[in-house]
Amino acid sequence: MYPTLIRLGSFEITTFGLMMFIAFVAAGWILARQFRRYGLSDELASNMVMFAAIGGIIGAKVYYAILFHDWHLLFSRAGLVWYGGLIGGFLFCSWYIRHRHIDYLIAADATSPALALGYAFGRIGCFLVGDDYGRPTDGWWGVAFPKGSPPTTAEALREFGVKVDPSIPSYQVLRVHPTQIYESLSAFVMFAILMWYTRQEHRKGRGFAMFLGMMGVERFLVEIVRAKDDRFIGPFTIAQLISVILIIAAIVLWTRRGEKRAVVPA
Questions:
Q1: Which of 211, 226, 218, 208 lies closest to 243 in space, CA to CA?
Q2: Is the pLDDT confidence value at 141 over 90?
Q3: Whole-model pTM?
Q4: SS (H, E, C) 182-204
Q5: What does residue 174 show for φ and ψ, rounded to 5 degrees?
Q6: Angle 201-109-111 (CA atoms, 0-180°, nearest 5)?
Q7: What Cα–Cα distance (Å) separates residue 39 from each residue in 19, 111, 196, 259?
Q8: Could you give phi then psi for residue 20, rounded to 5 degrees?
Q9: pLDDT, tens digit, for every residue of 14-66?
Q10: Could you give phi then psi for residue 232, rounded to 5 degrees?
Q11: Closest CA to 181 of 246, 122, 257, 116
Q12: H or E segment and range at residue 126
């Protein structure tokens, strides 16, 4: 793994930071194209990216601090949780959309492919720094993270509540499911589907409903093999609870009545 690309004294550029930058640039480019197709301006797209970045970082840090019951973590360099970022970005962007009197569902549909693309690149960043990995596996696709956050040693995995053979010494580095890659590949597929669907004639809100539904299903499934210590109801994690909420919201949004006018991107 390559957690640090450049280090000059106390200044460093991490691979995660680089991939986050690429994620926002790529998502912003797609968002601008989508907004133009939906008759919205590039200025709105740029401002949406800014609000998504601010809200996403704040939400990700707050979620992380709540998860570990330590508000000091708000000021640490580590700790950005995707669902927290999604919630924070959603709240900030929702306020901006309402403030500018933009049709909410049209903006949400236009935004959905960019969210999937940004997530795909962000998870590559997690892979490069060895974070958010899965449980041990003997499969050929397993990846060891000797410099991960933390390294995939038997001791670290046991601290996550993962059952590891007691005969394996605590210092031994194990191969684990590269769940970051699972999620990144899934997100690229989601992006392709959403780009295709949102260019077709469709009811307002259904593009965003597709994103919520696919995101919820993908995350629920990947959590099954994640190395996590936040399982609160048997094997189920907090992220899986949020995933179920997203799936329910997607179903409600997809089946909603009211506006029957189809949206046709320009």
A1: 218
A2: yes
A3: 0.86
A4: HHHHHHHHHHHHHHHHCCCCEEC
A5: -110, 155
A6: 135
A7: 30, 13, 18, 18
A8: -65, -40
A9: 787 788 889 889 999 999 999 888 888 888 888 888 888 888 888 777 876 77
A10: -115, -20
A11: 122
A12: helix 104-129
Q: What is the largest CA-CA distance in the chain?
A: 64
pLDDT digits (tens, 9 = 90+) for 189-228: 999 999 999 888 888 889 999 999 999 999 999 999 998 7
118: Cβ–Cβ under 8 A, 6 or more apart, which residues? 23, 24, 26, 27
Q: Which of these, 124, 121, 129, 219, lies nearest to 180 by C-alpha position?
A: 124
Q: Give the β-pairing of 262-263 and 4-8.
A: unpaired
Q: Are 114 and 86 in contact (CB under 8 A)?
A: no
Classify the C-alpha dihedral 154-127-79-210 as positive or negative.
Answer: negative
How much of the chain is in helix, strand and coil states, percent to nearest 5? 60, 10, 30
Q: If DSSP codes are grouped into helix, strand and coil, which group holds residue 163?
A: coil
Cβ(87)–Cβ(61) below 8 Å: no
Which residues, in sequence order, are CB contacts of 197 under 8 Å at separation 6+?
Answer: 206, 207, 210
The amino acid present at 51, given as its one-letter code, is F
Length in residues, the chain: 266
Please give the Cα distance from 168 to 67 (Å, whole number): 29
List the structure tokens of 28.
């912003």
Nearest residue to 10 via CA among 77, 81, 80: 77
Strand, coil or helix: what is 165? coil
